[in-house]
Design brief:
Elements: H1 7-24, H2 40-45, H3 49-63, H4 75-91, E1 94-114, E2 117-119, E3 124-125, E4 130-138, E5 156-160, H5 166-175, E6 180-184, E7 194-195, E8 209-212, H6 214-225, E9 231-252, E10 256-266, H7 276-293, E11 301-308, H8 316-324, H9 327-332, E12 333-339, E13 350-352, H10 367-380, E14 386-388, H11 397-401, E15 406-410, H12 419-425, H13 449-468, H14 491-495
Parallel strand pairs: 3-7, 4-5, 5-6, 6-8, 10-11, 10-12, 12-15, 13-14
Antiparallel strand pairs: 1-2, 1-9, 4-9, 9-11, 13-15
Helix pairs in contact: 1-3, 1-4, 3-4, 3-7, 7-13
Family: Belongs to the peptidase M28 family. M28B subfamily.
InterPro entries: M28_fam (IPR045175), M28_SGAP-like (IPR041756), PA_dom_sf (IPR046450), PA_domain (IPR003137), Peptidase_M28 (IPR007484)
Enzyme class: hydrolase
């Protein structure tokens, strides 16, 4: 269903900042113009952290319209994309449109208390809702065989992660009569979520469940082995519905549309939080670049900015755009630049490995030229860069699938910073690049503003460069592609593809 959004209330939140930006920062049709061609230095100089943070404040306020989230189709997300569209339209510099479609939305949450104390937990998609209070019982081994499960009637099963699907474990627990199930991680740290992989299984019924850390589980196991009863309460809720949602596409009115420069970021967050780094940081950066590009004479090459919806549900918006784009129009896209998480609090500076020398996964021909541009930019500022892999984890993938030269920047998600990374970029070794990845705490305090500003300036540098010239980017006709890799994935496989998601179904 399409969620009804009160745009009046949503946009009123943005009126102060939007009005200030529109009058003092935006030029174009109806506004004074510098009438100068864009240069890298000029565009880069207009990017500043004050405006970046101003937009971030608006996105945070929008998340409050939907209980702290900007998940696709929510009021928070609808307010976000209308805000972007309104600011761009006011420049008069772009043709701006919504590309609207419907996609299934699924959200599950669980709350766990043990002996009356709250315990941190993540959730599983396809897990059922419900309320359970019962003693915890231990499951043998990794719980991958029915024989590992004792009779569990009136109990909550405690199961170790590993060696088989989460869904199989939960089904075995249900088949043994359990009222609920808790899976605990087999490595240190908080898990970022999981999936039961399919709606039902023949091994038994799914039961309300929770997903906890190995540290919390160790305390429960010690008490149970000492003969003490440990009681758990699981409160699980589930939402499954179709939602109408939109990409925002803005193309310069001037410039050669046979050579389109594209830059994109995803506008949605995960249901768990407001998503200010993931990917408010990328969305805001390209918005600021787009608004400031509008101060200059029309570019030589057309520039198209895109804010993708439903990335967190499997690159849905970008895949929809590329599949709906006629083959002749695909050929006109000279290159694609992607910016997903560019302000992580324990940041690294990562450039996508276009030539594949570091990761053995090259992008399409021409991607190495984009990589070189970004490496040279950061070298000029005495900043070392690491390599990001074209592993299918963000919205570059549909463009890569059809042979469009691609590149971009990122600062890290749930992966752990190395000692070398800490030496290069500061921060703390042995800690995740973003400790609030896919969590409620991904708010403004989670943004490393100096790194964000530098990356936004790097984006401006690349847009100004390619707006003027695509020298080195091959423009020979690419072979047609009938289907994309993302299109072949199941709904659940899509969800666990995105944003460098590190948990799988095992």
């Amino acid at each position: 269903m399409r969620l009804q959004v009160s745009l009046l209330s949503a946009l009123s939140l943005a009126s102060g900042f939007a009005s200030t930006v529109a009058q003092s920062e935006i030029t174009g049709a109806g506004f004074p113009s510098l009438k100068q061609p864009v240069t890298t230095k000029a565009l880069e100089s207009l990017i500043n952290r004050k405006n970046l943070l101003g937009h971030a404040e608006q996105l945070l306020k929008f998340s409050e319209l939907s209980n702290g989230t900007r998940a696709f189709g929510s009021k928070g997300h609808e307010a976000t994309i209308h805000y972007v569209k309104k600011l761009l339209e006011r420049t008069g510099y772009y043709d701006v449109e919504f590309q609207t479609f419907t996609w299934p939305y699924s959200e599950s949450t669980s709350k766990l208390t043990v002996d009356g104390q709250d315990v941190w937990t993540s959730t599983f998609t396809y897990a059922p809702g419900g309320d359970v209070t019962a003693p915890i019982a231990l499951v043998a081994n990794d719980g991958c065989q029915a024989s590992d499960y004792p009779v569990l009637t009136g109990k909550v099963a405690l199961i170790k992660r590993g060696n088989c699907d989460f869904g199989l474990k939960i089904a075995f627990a249900g088949g043994a009569g359990a009222s609920g199930a808790i899976i605990y991680n087999n490595v240190d740290g908080r898990p970022t979520g999981g999936t039961l992989a399919q709606p039902t299984r023949p091994e038994g019924p799914y039961v309300p469940s929770a997903y906890i850390t190995t540290v919390d589980a160790a305390g429960f196991i010690e008490k149970i082995n000492a003969g003490t009863e440990v009681s758990a309460t699981i409160h699980a809720t589930v939402i499954n519905e179709d939602r109408s949602t939109s990409n925002v596409i803005a193309t310069t009115k001037q410039g050669d549309r046979d050579n389109v420069i594209m830059a994109g970021a995803h506008s949605d967050s995960v249901p768990a939080g407001p998503g200010l780094n993931d990917d408010g940081s990328g969305s805001i950066a390209i918005l600021e670049v787009a608004l400031n590009l509008a101060k200059f004479r029309g570019p030589k090459n057309a520039v198209r900015f895109a804010w993708w919806t439903a990335e967190e549900f499997g690159l849905v918006g970008s895949e929809h755009y590329v599949t709906q784009l006629p083959e002749a129009e695909r050929q006109k896209v000279a290159l694609y630049l992607n910016f997903d998480m560019i302000a992580s609090p324990n940041s690294g500076y990562f450039v996508f490995d276009g030539d594949g020398n570091a990761t053995n996964v090259p992008g399409p021909s021409g991607s190495e030229v984009i990589e070189s541009l970004y490496r040279s930019y950061f070298d000029s500022h005495s900043i070392k860069t690491g390599s990001a892999v074209f592993g299918g984890s963000s919205d570059y993938q549909p463009f890569v699938d059809v042979g469009i030269p691609s590149g971009g920047l990122m600062t890290g998600a749930g992966g752990v910073k190395t000692a070398e990374g800490a030496e290069w970029w500061g921060g703390e070794a042995g800690v995740a690049y973003d400790v609030c990845y896919h969590q409620k705490c991904d708010n403004i305090q989670n943004l490393r503003v100096d790194v964000w500003e530098r990356n936004a300036k790097a984006i401006a540098h690349s847009i100004a460069t390619y707006a003027n010239s695509i020298q080195g980017i091959p423009r020979t006709t690419r072979p047609p592609v009938s289907s994309l890799r993302v299109s072949k994935l199941s709904y659940e496989e899509r969800i666990h593809l995105t944003c460098d998601h590190e948990d799988d179904a095992a």
